[in-house]
Amino acid sequence: xxxxxxxxxxxxxxxxxxxxxxxxxxxxxxxxxxxxxxxxxxxxxxxxxxxxxxxxxxxxxxxxxxxxxxxxxxxxxxxxxxxxxxxxxxxxxxxxxxxxxxxxxxxxxxxxxxxxxxxxxxxxxxxxxxxxxxxxxxxxxxxxxxxxxxxxxxxxxxxxxxxxxxxxxxxxxxxxxxxxxxxxxxxxxxxxxxxxxxxxxxxxxxxxxxxxxxxxxxxxxxxxxxxxxxxxxxxxxxxxxxxxxxxxxxxxxxxxxxxxxxxxxxxxxxxxxxxxxxxxxxxxxxxxxxxxxxxxxxxxxxxxxxxxxxxxxxxxxxxxxxxxxxxxxxxxxxxxxxxxxxxxxxxxxxxxxxxxxxxxxxxxxxxxxxxxxxxxxxxxxxxxxxxxxxxxxxxxxxxxxxxxxxxxxxxxxxxxxxxxxxxxxxxxxxxxxxxxxxxxxxxxxxxxxxxxxxxxxxxxxxxxxxxxxxxxxxxxxxxxxxxxxxxxxxxxxxxxxxxxxxxxxxxxxxxxxxxxxxxxxxxxxxxxxxxxxxxxxxxxxxxxxxxxxxxxxxxxxxxxxxxxxxxxxxxxxxxxxxxxxxxxxxxxxxxxxxxxxxxxxxxxxxxxxxxxxxxxxxxxxxxxxxxxxxxxxxxxxxxxxxxxxxxxxxxxxxxxxxxxxxxxxxx
Length: 667
Prior knowledge:
By secondary structure, the chain is of the alpha+beta class. Helices cover about 25% and strands about 35% of the residues. It contains 17 helices and 40 strands. The termini are far apart.
């Protein structure tokens, strides 16, 4: 079972994470990459790299023959699947072993048994674990499922046996909807997992999602490495994870941990794995949910509180080593929180964001597992999660403070991220008091979530930061006002004007003796004494009080973007100079309101109209797939479909015209 070279059958931040563990053990790493990832950081940092196909996952990261051929061509002796893609594919694990390679993970049989949610629950019951009441029988007929649904009563869930991540799952609160929910879950399960089998399970409202990390070797030893709480979720996708699970009765915690070890022992589990539970605080009960037979996205919080490198142990166990740890050796220090950083716009229904990252200024002093850097391209072909921010403190309140402070100094340009939304979650009273649960986001934001507007002082300071950025370093601000200054009579001050976002009037920045002052359109005045912009920080004195804030200025399109740290978070401001406004006015008109354009790069999944169709404003014209999500694109105006510029299956660029309408008032 000895090997010295590991092929990593994955991409992005997890590929880089595995590479770090390989270097720690003196192993060489092999990166496999798609055409879209040719210039990605994980490719450049690998000891060896080989292209295995096109951008679509089916052509590359899900292409088992191509991955095995890459292992043969590069002389790899082992394959690490990471998470996602083929990590819980029993056929892949078996194919790796059949090719004479070592699979860094559990045996194919364990993956298969736990991959079937029905079989996994049966194994959990045999190991003495409580499970939610429901139906998990082999009879998948409509008649049987509907009979069982009536016997179970509402609310209940229809769940895909081979599913995960919320796919193939439907909540039924009215028995009249049961037949449609079963049919819909089956259809999605078949398309996503190739298996239409479903089961029914009682729905536990206001439940928490608790999981226990286990580690097993091939010599019969299994241990737990504590628990985590992953209750903050959107559409069954985790947002923030923490370890240990707070506010959990200690007797129940011990029982959950011991039960996870019993299950691992019962199935002869080797490698790192996770046993997941639902915990009902009202009843004081927990129920087995599933077992993930792979490394989890949230594994860093367990590493932070235990000091144990899980990926290192995966590799050592795959080499046949026995665990050198006893359960009593594993201690738990402090509290850790992980924030998933995704390229999406929460204010626009979490619309995926794509493009090139023009700025990636990360917070110091914290762990950041990232798959990108400045210059990286975020493609619509893959998952939107780009990085994970991990903090560790003596207690939960301290970890929250550290996480918020890190987000407040994280500046990213070119692609929108969910950081401001994650900050709102961390600072929400429900989260801080530990009253959140797996379906609690609507309660936390009953009116939806909107991006907070920058305050007036932030706008003023951002304009001053831009002014300093445009000023040559060897000149005073007054000397560097250049071609945009508006000069009065001799001996009087001059001003530079910057138009903020879409404001009609400018922010005016004036220079005085050792100070800069910004005047907003409502005549709000902010003066900064001894202003300076150095190494990404704006400093000075306001009303005699010194300050120093993260500030990055970049050119984006036809304007300047200023990323400025404030007491309430990182803010983004866009400004145009007088010259910019002149260039915009002379550059011609943009696309008309009668044309639907793509909001991002993606693949056309469906066209809902044909030439000659009459549509109302807001009707769905095109469905676009980007980052594994479907986006319904509405008609910008009412009218008649004049031309359709795309077809299903087309890959289109951002802002590409898709459908042209003859507006109603012209017909």
